[in-house]
Amino acid sequence: MPTLKEQAYESLKEQIMEAEPGTLFSVRKSAKELGLSYTPVREALVKLQNEGLLEVDSNVGFSVLRIDMKAIQNIYQSRECVEHYVLPKIIDKIEEDDILVLKAFIVRQKRAMEQKDISAYTEVDAEFHVYLIDLLQNKQLSDFYRGVRSQYRIGSRKIVRKHSYLPIEEHEKFLKLVEAKKYEEALECMYQHTSAAVERMKEGYVQIGL
């Protein structure tokens, strides 16, 4: 049974992921909407702030993270640090069952693209990468990485995606190399995937003038 704080956290995080950057969240209003007391809601909002999804607004409480070019660079630098540390340690430990799970993510990602559901697309993309990071079984790193990916999802909903099938193709190529036990090539494939992703993000950022 989740605690009141956990209930508030999950509900608020879901709202944040669908909200526009800069959207305001106050303890009073959120508590009323969720039917909870102030304390668990305040604690949940502070946790979400610590995860980098909210910023403190001195006038009303909190606002959804505003993404600019510097924030995009910071997000991707953090992502690269984790992935470059973790992937070499787990690449040869990816088993057949893991590959089946990862392939299922790709199927869901393709479906999201066909339905033009960018929110679902970015969520599944994050799940693919988080699954790989979780294979190291380092909770602190996994939690940090989840926070980074959540920040990315907030910004990516505003980005024009001209090449949205390319990440899917890169995921498929990575898995084929892992299945063939070509681990060095698989690592290079994923590193290039991350580098390409940041360039696509920057391109979309410039196009919509964020």
TrEMBL record:
<dbReference type="InterPro" id="IPR000524">
    <property type="entry name" value="Tscrpt_reg_HTH_GntR"/>
</dbReference>
<dbReference type="InterPro" id="IPR036390">
    <property type="entry name" value="WH_DNA-bd_sf"/>
</dbReference>
<dbReference type="GO" id="GO:0003677">
    <property type="term" value="F:DNA binding"/>
</dbReference>
<keyword id="KW-0804">Transcription</keyword>
<dbReference type="GO" id="GO:0003700">
    <property type="term" value="F:DNA-binding transcription factor activity"/>
</dbReference>
<dbReference type="InterPro" id="IPR008920">
    <property type="entry name" value="TF_FadR/GntR_C"/>
</dbReference>
<protein>
    <submittedName>
        <fullName>GntR family transcriptional regulator</fullName>
    </submittedName>
</protein>
<dbReference type="InterPro" id="IPR036388">
    <property type="entry name" value="WH-like_DNA-bd_sf"/>
</dbReference>
<dbReference type="Pfam" id="PF07729">
    <property type="entry name" value="FCD"/>
</dbReference>
<keyword id="KW-0238">DNA-binding</keyword>
<feature type="domain" description="GntR C-terminal">
    <location>
        <begin position="74"/>
        <end position="196"/>
    </location>
</feature>
<feature type="domain" description="HTH gntR-type">
    <location>
        <begin position="8"/>
        <end position="64"/>
    </location>
</feature>
<dbReference type="InterPro" id="IPR011711">
    <property type="entry name" value="GntR_C"/>
</dbReference>
<keyword id="KW-0805">Transcription regulation</keyword>
<dbReference type="Pfam" id="PF00392">
    <property type="entry name" value="GntR"/>
</dbReference>
